[in-house]
Amino acid sequence: MYESATEALRDVLTDGITLAVGGFGLSGNPNDLIEVVRDSGVRELTVVSNNMGVDGKGLGLLLENRQVRKVIASYVGENKLFAQQYLDGELEVEFAPQGTLAERMRAGGAGIPAFYTATGVGTPVAEGKPHAEFDGRTYVQERGIVADVALVHAHTADRAGNLVYRKTSRNFNPLVATCGRVCVAETEVLLDGYVDPDLVITPGVFVDRLVTARERVKEIEKLTVRPRAGAEA
């Protein structure tokens, strides 16, 4: 257990490392840990995440600070700076179908170096990759992902590192937690006792460092509302 996110990441951040980061849009982002990465000034990072947050929020902070060299993600999403850096040739982007990206993380965490999938065959994401035929269908080989450091956000944890995620914040976090050589987790709630074994999503064996996240307003990527019934225009 560490006193702060800064302490938890103090000796694991260096230039050129690969970071796997949980979250989907702005849901389930390990924001305390991301801010420490930004403040550390490390450069030439490869970031593996479903997307790169939005401008000025989540992983968008690292793009603003020009700390990222390459991104492995499923889409550019709502981040205009991400798209601009990619189009300007400042940022290398490796696109992966969302399910394939998830499975690459899971495979890396399970010690599986590669697997075959039909997703992406005949598209640019399959170019230059080995192909094979199984039962009359063509598949493309995808490599498992093993990151130097994994950053995850949990809702509840115990001091043994067992993690529980809340609702959609579960997203990529469990997969990210397994595929890092060092997994650093932040949690909103730290229990005095232990998480009920039936509720554990990420077992503590995968978590190397744990810190309590500071309270903050949870950002909403896209807020869609409608007028209340009977309300005046």
Automatic annotation (TrEMBL):
Q: What is this protein called?
A: Succinyl-CoA--3-ketoacid-CoA transferase
| Entry keyword set | Transferase
Gene3D superfamilies in the cross-refs: Glutaconate Coenzyme A-transferase (3.40.1080.10)
Lineage, highest ranks first? Bacteria, Bacillati, Actinomycetota, Actinomycetes, Pseudonocardiales
Pfam name, any one:
CoA_trans
Mention one GO molecular function. Answer: CoA-transferase activity
Q: Which organism is it from?
A: Amycolatopsis bartoniae
* Family recorded in the similarity comment: Belongs to the 3-oxoacid CoA-transferase subunit A family.
